[in-house]
Amino acid sequence: MDNSPLQVLTVPTAPYPDQRPGTSGLRKKVYVFQSRRNYLHNFIQSIFSSIDLRDRQGSTVVVGGDGRFFNTTAIEVIVQMAAANGVGRLIIGHHGIMSTPAISCVIRKYKAIGGIILTASHNPGGPEGDFGIKFNTANGGPAKEAVTNKIFQISRTIEEFAICPGLHVDLTTLGKQTFDLENKFKPFTVEIVDSVESYANLLRNIFDFAALKEFLSGENHIKIRLDSMHGVLGPYVKRIVCEELGCPVNSAINCVPMEDFGGQHPDPNLTYAADLVDSMRDGQYDFGAAFDGDGDRNMILGKHGFFVSPPDSVAVIADNIFCIPYFQHTGVRGFARSMPTSSALDRVAKATKIELYETPTGWKFFGNLMDAGRLSLCGEESFGTGGDHIREKDGLWAVLAWLSILATRRKSVEDILKDHWLKYGRNYFTRYDYENVDIDAACEMMEDLEIMISDKSFVKQRFAVEDKIYQVEKADNFEYTDPVDSTITRNQGLRIIFSDGSRIIYRLSGTGSDGATVRIYIDSYEKEQIFEDTQVMLAPLATIALKISQLHHRTGRSGPSVIT
């Protein structure tokens, strides 16, 4: 056997112009990574080159993915390039699989300089699907814009990358593997770790597992159904909810991670998790939840498939926050939501006299507030909820938070939500997604829309639909000044705010891989009519939103791809 040090090569390459990371990293169709020469290598080198050599030398980096197609291929390249770029140790999830919340946890636990997450989140997988690469920094959260801009600039001028092609790692065996490299004084170490244990231990210190076990498997236990949608979270649900908290094994479905997510779209909403919703309708389950591909998003359901909107979910958790032992110890520093998310959380913040922050979409903005000790709980309308225990949204954390509330209050999901509406009033909220729209058409529409709403004459305009009249009070392109470091983030969504507080918001999403996704968000507050159908209540505003934007005409679409 040849024990000579492994050779490090410098390989010439040519840049690609399209490697700008979006809200959640670089996402492309799998074939882009497979067919374009050195496309993957260029981006990985750009990540390593964005880190100062002194910080990189001998450092620890965490690597894991959601198990989608191309995951193991990418990990082999990352391992070979990390070694060649002076990284001292890689911590990799068993079989290369680790949820996004768990990676955030492990980065923080081992004081790594960052982590590379291989996921396209809730986007489809398989050879015809999407693949993504996201870089998280030392706080465990998504890289800030200054870092992603640096990565992009490097990718536009890259001329070579460093790699150790003879280095091969065994992802199936737990433990340490060491490799000697030429011209390196210390061996390069790869540590294959149990993907679940560090994260499970973190949850044990947040929730009362004894009380949850009694609630889920004791004498008068409730029946639950959790759908991992063949994403990364299956092993976590099995180990934590079934084995540790005592839930019957058949409470957890679609728990085997698959490269193509079983041919499904791993997006936990009423459209793509329809099988779960249908299985809840007959009332045999008291609580249901679905998770996305990488385990950071969640959808909450009550008996008979009663749907809890994500803005309501974070508001209810906020109002019942001391049902979670962690917050009894730490106190509550602040609440936050993304700008498109309904203002249900604002009402709880006002009643409890807790600071409320409204940020652009993207978890990195929450992370900055958490690092400064200003934020404890936050959420986004895109099925993301989380606390300050890590720096990512966290699907299983949100489910255990809800189960903690149910165990304490001893009421159904529906009754808890209806009590909440009676106490605070209700924010009706919906989102229309128009996916894979022609990029030029979408951009032109948004530009024309901004010109229209920026005109002074637009404010005070009235729009009448049936017997309802809405008067524009404010219209702008949302801009955020970070209260921690005063950085300004512009162009975060076009807002039309009416005199009754109702809002219409238009955004181009940064999480797709193909074409553009136009999102319309509609939010309206009601104090009295709180038990009506959401789409019926918001129909007048939806009509106005489409009339103002001329979206169907401008994009050639007759209706949205998804309504949530």
TrEMBL record:
Database matches in SUPFAM superfamilies: Phosphoglucomutase, C-terminal domain, Phosphoglucomutase, first 3 domains
Annotated organism of origin: Sparus aurata (Gilthead sea bream)
Top-level taxonomy: Eukaryota, Metazoa, Chordata, Craniata, Vertebrata
Pfam family, one: PGM_PMM_III
GO biological process, one term: carbohydrate metabolic process
Subcellular location: Cytoplasm
Keywords for the protein's UniProt record, in alphabetical order: Cytoplasm, Magnesium, Metal-binding, Phosphoprotein
GO molecular function, one term: phosphoglucomutase activity
Keyword Transmembrane: no
Protein name: Phosphoglucomutase 1
Gene3D superfamilies: Alpha-D-Glucose-1,6-Bisphosphate, subunit A, domain 3, Alpha-D-phosphohexomutase, C-terminal domain
A cellular component annotation (GO) from this entry: cytosol
PROSITE patterns: PGM_PMM
InterPro entries (UniProt xref): A-D-PHexomutase_a/b/a-I, A-D-PHexomutase_a/b/a-I/II/III, A-D-PHexomutase_a/b/a-II, A-D-PHexomutase_a/b/a-III, A-D-PHexomutase_C_sf, A-D-PHexomutase_CS, Alpha-D-phosphohexomutase_SF, PGM
Family, as annotated: Belongs to the phosphohexose mutase family.
Domain Alpha-D-phosphohexomutase alpha/beta/alpha per the UniProt entry, residue ranges: 19-160, 199-303, 323-424
